[in-house]
Amino acid sequence: MRLLHTGDLHLDSAFCAYGQRGAEQQREAGRAMLRRIFECAESEKCDMILIAGDLFDGRFVSPATEELFCELVEKTNIPTVLSPGNHDWYTEGGIYSRLSAKLSDKLILFSSSELQMFELDALRVRVFGYAFGSAVLSHSPLSDANIPEDNGYLKIFCGHADLSSPVSRYAPLTLGEIERCGFDYAALGHIHNRGEQEDSRGRVRYCGFCEGRSFDEIGEGGVWIVDLDGGECRAERRILAQKSFYICETDISSCADTNAIVGVLRAEAARYSDVAGAHLRIYLCGRASEGAVSYVLSRADAIAKSAGIAYLELVDETLPLLDGDYLERDTTLRGELYRTLLPKLTSENADERRLASRALRIGLAAIDGRSVFGADERDGGEV
Ligand SMILES: [Mn+2]
Q1: Are residues 272 and 331 in the same domain?
Q2: Ligand 1 center to 70 CA (angstroms)
């Protein structure tokens, strides 16, 4: 028995930050990814596709996306299990009841917030799951679950759930509950960045993101291919992303001039040149002159191009002056600000250093009567 486990695709997101045309391109990229998922299920000869919620970003789905999903399920002809999540919750007459009517037995759809079970005799499998019926599902559908006696079929669970907190508003299941039910595999969705597996045996997993959508989703996205044979469970990641996000930090203190800084950043970016559609954010840290930094910031696109990556974002976290000694001895308010922040500027904690250097930049700009905004947010924010 071979499964493809995915979810959290959030198709048809608004992507407001991209503008109208950019947003449509992003939505098209989401549909292309859905195609790759079904192609992967076909080429990997999967017996079943499990979609653990948030397939769609909302309950209103564009005709193009709805048509494509129907076409793929029809054409692939692999039973597809769907557990609506907190973004795409189930409503009577909504997108999922429409899809269910169109796709009949090819789509195994959960529609109740209580645990449901479907039996697929041809595959000798029982699938368990539930649906969000609104944006919130504050009880655990497994807490008082009545699991029928074993009939020799595999028991697979597919659900959108939050294992991280017992008081979560998003189906707060516990690992203990899942294990008590004796599922051969539990396909979860909702938390995009969890680790490889939730339990010691690797039978409980989050699908993870299929393709990174911002700097909140780091690394190459994909799906799980899960083999259940003779009581064994093996899962392997298949990378399907054509776009990935990475973050790193580079100390430019020792760079003699702007050319050296550009060289260092190009080398850093080139490490990702083999990754499809690499988007990299580099935090510049250490000490550098403001002039050098602002020149380098203006070269981000050129550096990305020459390093062979799709996009580079540079975030200035440097200390604004080369000569800290001078500020240290400065008897004016500038020096006082520097000395007050110094323990944090040299802290072991990178976040603390970052915050302190930002405070220093803004503080010095304010004292000098320069634009506080210009001194700080020079980057354009997230993609
Ligand atoms: Mn969710």
Answers
A1: yes
A2: 22
Same-domain check for residues 264 and 221: no
Q: Which of 179, 205, 239 is the last residue of a domain?
A: 239
344 and 196 belong to one structural domain: no
Environment of ion ligand 1 (residues, CB < 5 A): 54, 85-86, 190
Q: How many domains does the chain have?
A: 2
> Global pTM?
0.84
Tell me: do 290 and 314 sit in the same domain. yes
With beta carbons less than 8 A apart as the criterion, state whether 160 and 7 touch: yes
pLDDT, one tens digit per residue, over 317-350 is 887 654 567 778 888 998 899 899 989 988 888 7
Q: How far is the CA of 158 from the centre of ligand 1 (A)?
A: 13
Its domain, for residue 142, covers 2-239
Q: How far is the CA of 227 from the centre of ligand 1 (A)?
A: 25
- How many whole angstroms from 96 Cα to the centroid of ligand 1? 16
Mean pLDDT for the chain overall: 91
Q: Is 284 helix (H, G, I), strand (E, B) or coil?
A: strand
Q: Are residues 348 and 262 in the same domain?
A: yes
Cα separations in angstroms, 176 against 179, 181, 193, 197, 228: 5, 9, 21, 15, 21
pLDDT in tens, 41-69: 999 999 999 999 999 999 889 999 999 99
Q: At what angle do helices 350-367 and 333-345 cross, to 10 degrees?
A: 170
In a domain, 382, yes or no: no
CATH of the domain at 147: 3.60.21.10
Angle at which helices 63-76 and 95-103 pack, to 10 degrees? 30
Output the CA 160–ligand 1 centroid distance in Å: 7
Contacting residues for 218 by C-beta, under 8 A, at least 6 apart: 193, 212, 245, 246, 247
Domain termination residue (choose one: 216, 239, 262): 239
Task: Count the neighbouring beta carbons within 10 Å of the beta carbon of residue 223.
Answer: 27
Query: Distance from the CA of 178 to the center of ligand 1, in angstroms?
Result: 19
